[in-house]
Amino acid sequence: MQNCVFTGVSYSSPTLASAMGQLIPAFTFLLAVIFRMEKLDWRSSRSRIKIMGTLVSVSGALTITLYKGPAIGAITTQSNPDPIPSIMSTANSWIIGGLFLVTADLCVSIFTTLQAAILKEYPSEMAMVSFLCLFGTIQSSIVSLIAERNPNAWKLRPDIELISIIYSAVVGSVVTFGVTAWCIRKKGPVFVAIFKPVGIATAAFLGVIFLGDTLHVGSIVGAIIIVAGFYGVIWAQSKEDEHSKVNRPRNLQSLSQRLLSWRAI
C-alpha cells in the first residue's frame, strides 16, 4: 500500500492522492457486503441511511480536498495563482498515478476486511497486532537492506527525525493498529472506514491551530458535510445494534422452548 501511494504521488500529485483516499469507505463497504459482514437490505431505512451517509461523508472529504474557496479572517491580496499541473500534457502519467492510488486504497480496504475476518475467529487484538508488527518489521528490514546500500542513510540523530520515527512506531503502528483492531471487532470494518473522511476535516482544523494554516470556506463546508454523513452512519449503526439486542432474547427464548419440546417428546 505504501509503495503504491508513493509511486502514485510521484506520477500524479498529492491532491489526487488525497482525493483518491476517500474511496476507502466505499471499497470497504462493498467488500463487507460481498463477504456478508454487512447486511444490505434496500427495504430497510437503516441500510439506506448508512449507504447515503457513507456517500455524503466521501463527498465532504472531496470538497475539502478539491475546493479551497476564499480564506476566512485573512486579507486577500492580488497574487499569482498556484501552479496547476498540466494534466493534458501528462495525461498518461496522471492515469498511471491514479491507478496506483486506487490499488493502494483497495489494499487498505482488503486489509481492514481481513482484520474483521481474523478477529471474528480469533478475538485477540494485541496478538494480531504483535504478529502484524513482527512480520512487517522482518519484511521491511529485508527490503530496506537490499534497496538502501548507503550506510549514512541508517544513521539517526537525536533531533526531530528520531522523535518522528519513535512516534510513528509507537502511535502510528502499535496504538493505531490496536485501537483499529478493537473497533473492527466491536463494530465491523465499515464503521472503522467511515472515520477516514473525518480525519481529513480534523487535520484541516489542527493545521490551523498548530501550524498557523489559513482556514478556508471549503474546509468549513466540507467539515459540515462530513459531520452530517458521519452522524447518519452512526445513527443507523446504533439502531441496528438496538434491533439486534431486541431480537436476541427472542431467539434465545424460542431456542429454549424448542429444547423443552424436544425433551418432552
From TrEMBL:
Domain of life: Eukaryota
Domain EamA: 96-234
TM stretches of this protein: 16-37, 49-67, 94-114, 126-147, 162-183, 190-211, 217-236
Cellular component annotations (GO), alphabetically ordered: membrane
Keywords, in A-Z order: Membrane, Transmembrane, Transmembrane helix
Membrane topology designation: Multi-pass membrane protein
Annotated localization: Membrane
A GO term for molecular function: transmembrane transporter activity
Protein family: Belongs to the drug/metabolite transporter (DMT) superfamily. Plant drug/metabolite exporter (P-DME) (TC 2.A.7.4) family.
Protein name in the entry: WAT1-related protein
